[in-house]
Amino acid sequence: MDTYYAVTSGTCSSSGKWSGQVTVTWNSTGSSGLTTAQLRMVAVHEFGHVLGLAHVSRTCSDTKSVMVQGTTKWTCDWGNDDPWADDVKGVNAIY
Q1: Which phi and psi angles does 90 have, rounded to 5°?
Q2: Contacts with 61 (C-beta within 8 Å, 6 or more apart), sequence order
Q3: Half-sphere exposure (CA, 13 Å, Cβ side) for 33?
Q4: What is the pLDDT of residue 7?
Q5: Per-residue buried b or exposed e for 5-41, using 16+ beta carbons within 10 Å of the residue's own CB
Q6: pLDDT value of position 2
Q7: DSSP letters along 35-86, please?
Q8: HSE-CB of 29 using CA atoms within 13 angstroms
Q9: Is 19 helix (H, G, I), strand (E, B) or coil?
Q10: Which pLDDT score is estimated for 89?
Q11: Which of the residues 2, 78, 83, 94 has an alpha carbon 20 to 30 A from that of 42?
């Protein structure tokens, strides 16, 4: 069984930004046990990829980021107010 919840795909330009259509594909098997709040975080995470953000590594004591890959976003009890300041800084740096 695939362990991902969703995946973003498309074509990147030479500048590293998406060019053309970007697709987010949900894995209904992998995401079937997630709560509504967790599904929302996965959607915001994938939209972060659409905006050009990469995965980041964080522990529960670090700065919150929806771009953490995996379940740390909700096991740290960071709340549901994503995207967080770190994510906004990343988008601002790109654009």
Answers
A1: -65, -45
A2: none
A3: 4
A4: 84
A5: bbeeeeeeeeeeebeeebebeeeeebeeeeeeebeeb
A6: 55
A7: -HHHHHHHHHHHHHHHTTPPPB---TTS---TTB-SSHHHHTT--S-PSPHH
A8: 4
A9: strand
A10: 93
A11: 94
Mean pLDDT by 10 residues, the chain (95 residues): 75 73 84 86 88 89 88 80 87 90
Q: How far apart are CA 58 and CA 52, in angstroms?
A: 18
pTM of the entire predicted model: 0.82
The alpha carbon dihedral of 5, 10, 12, 18 has a sign of negative
Residue indicated by tokens 């069984």: 1
Please identify which residue in the block is written with the tokens 């050009």.
52
Alpha carbon separation from 44 to 1, 13, 53, 80, 84 (Å, rounded): 23, 22, 11, 11, 10
* C-alpha–C-alpha distance, residues 60 and 91, integer Å: 22
Q: 74 and 63 in contact (C-beta within 8 Å)?
A: no
